[in-house]
Amino acid sequence: MQNVFESLPPAPLADLLLRGVCSRCILRFFNVRDTGLRHCISNSSELFFQLRPVLVRVMGEERLNGIQEKVNLEQVSKACKPDGGLPSQTMPRICIVCLGILQLYLQDNVHSADDTDTRKSPVISEVTKTVQKEGHKFDSFCLEISIPALTFVREHALWCYLNSRYSSEGLFKGADVNERIVPLKESLKHLLVRPLEQLWNASFDPNSTFRVALFYKHTNSSAELSFLDGLQGSCSKLGCQGKSKCNNVSKATIGATRENLEYGESLSFVQRSLPSIPLHKFSDHFPWPPPKLDAPCTMTTRCFCRALYVGGRYLKFSRNISQSPWMIDDERKGKSSVQEIIGEKVLLLFKADGYKFHAAGREDIDVRMLGNGRPFLLEITNARVIPTQSELTQVEASLNIIKGEWVKVKGLRHAGIEVFDVMREGEAEKQKEYAAVVWLSRPVSDADFEKLSSLKELKIEQKTPVRVLHRRSLLTRPRIIHWMSCEKIPGSTQYFLLFLCSQAGTYIKEFVHGDLGRTYPNIRSLLDCEAEIWQLDVVGVNMEFV
Amino acid sequence: MENLEGTNASEEESLESLLYPAPHELPLRPLPAIKCNYTHHFALNVMGKDRHDQYVYRHANGLCIIGLAPTHVVLHPTPSVIGVDFNVGKQSRVEMKACGKRKRNAHILESNSVLCKVMTSDQFFLIRCCVKGVLLEVNEQLVTSPFLLNNQASTEGYVAIMMPKPEDWSKAEKALLTREQYIAERGLSLHA
Ligand SMILES: [Zn+2]
Predict the structure, then answer these.
(1) CATH for B32-186?
(2) pLDDT tens, A185-237?
(3) Is A533 helix (H, G, I), strand (E, B) or coil?
(4) Do the Cβ atoms of A467 and B18 come within 8 Å?
(5) pTM of the entire structure?
(6) Which ipTM score applies to this complex?
(7) I want to staple A333 with a disulfide (CB 3.0 to 4.6 A). Which of A41, A326, A389, B85 is the partner?
(8) Catalytic residue among A205, A364, A366, A528
(9) How many C-beta atoms surround the C-beta of residue A544 within 10 A?
(10) Could you tell me the domains of chain A?
(11) Closest-CA residue in chain B for A472?
(12) Could you tell me if A201 lies within 8 Å of chain B, comparing CB atoms?
């Protein structure tokens, strides 16, 4: 493994080691990916001690001493006493670039000498503790790593130094460090993924719904980054953009809440703007190479299951249960709701933190939902368990056999987030079928039935019904009644059953009684007599769904 | 396959039976929408003018329908409205509607503010708000079909929809009569 280092240009290698750049960052700066990265000693002073004979052989003792003098790091020279003693354990070397992030054994400022086995590092045990505490069951996982912007500034500063010192030798050329080195996050993932896979018996998958997040913070961040604020007008403008961008990113990543974001943590902004700052200005504000540190980054972890979706259709046989909890002035009305009856059951199955209920439209509380049912989607937050399809089917069956339960479910199954759009699009386009019991102020006749069933694609104009006008805008909406058909109700002369199919968003009760003439035409006007609606049921929501 | 069809058939059957109400459960005549969704209130002799009777139908959501009570003088002895004019006050009431969910540009009218002018061949009568509140809508239908006031004043012939604040409504309600009080006061039969 040391062969990797023996093949690197000796002078800059010695320079970097002596300045306290960890072995993993050295490999990053030489753009070496993968090779033995996990199994090298990260501590630069110890690695220097081990490599010293090779360096002496390649470049001669005199030149090496020259570099060493130039670096003038007392503690390093002390650590590498001629008697060959190991560097003192009480003198930790925190990497001046990664702030200790890649030195996985670095904790409480104590650095273990042998840190080649990453499996036993405090980082791994910390993350594992978090995952065990949360109790998720998973066979794949994804890592979300959040690092301080300070690491970019220090990478840039080190690059500027190396470029100024060694570019004449054909090394470290180019202005933008980001294009030349292995990113810190990539190296960290490299260190962590394999050991975690083995330990957790799960595979790493960037698309996994199970997210494990590592947040690194450093106390120096605000002090060392403050120069960015006042540097340039354009920079502060960029800063604003950067901050808003950062907010978007934080929404996408789990729990990257404000408290986890440090001052100036607009990462991409810092990273992008650094190469555009004139070098003389940058060197005024930040030393090259970057200075030593008293303390490493601190790390916190969280794990979380991304939203999962379960779709199905529901039926409602009651005229007293609403779709969602019915609240008036924060006071609960009605016993239960479709949302709760289905949601609570599914929540238990997933051992989740919560759920959101989305449905393709809704019916009034006093309207039953019959026929093929109404499509719905449950959004499940932070599930601990992902049940199988047969477990979902079992829950569906157990819900449907409850005697006296007014809500039933059909076709409960896992769904993707794309079903959301299917439902939203379908909501606007779908046709709905209803059955209404209608009363007329005179006996119902065959002529009435013929009149109504002859009307196809009937255009009506519907003003916002009075019953919802207090919370909706007053508008006149054109709506279409696609067809109507009528059935006699045996034993009744003035009531009949009206089946109708209408465009989404049509208010059916108002179409029957006319809502003071505000829906026109209506059954009253079409049959030229008084008409009232006794009861209403939805019998079909015509929409393709999962 | 047979089994499946069997299930569908029985499902359809049970849907049918759900949709048809038992005739004995049906009332002879259901409570009309205007009665079951609203409480009815009346203002008699509005502004002290004899038989200037109006109704205020209040929906459970707080909105009030304003219109001419059956005993309004213009409807007696024979209903004789031939025109309705909303151009009263500084601004036509048609232009005055509040818009949007939040009811922007809301104009608050007082309970004695005029909503419209109802005309017969030789007289006119002023119709007033009866409650203080935001004017949400006037029935523009009346401009082209004023006869709606003659035969359907309590439904299609409504004049306006107002949204009073809860505290303003509590005040207004005290000054109004209930349907029972109205019937007694005007000596009407119960079916009025
Ligand atoms: Zn490092």
Answers:
(1) 2.40.50.100
(2) 999 998 899 889 999 999 999 999 999 999 999 888 777 777 776 654 444 43
(3) strand
(4) no
(5) 0.78
(6) 0.90
(7) A326
(8) A364
(9) 8
(10) 2-304 (no CATH), 308-428 (3.30.70.2510), 430-541 (3.30.70.3190)
(11) B101
(12) no
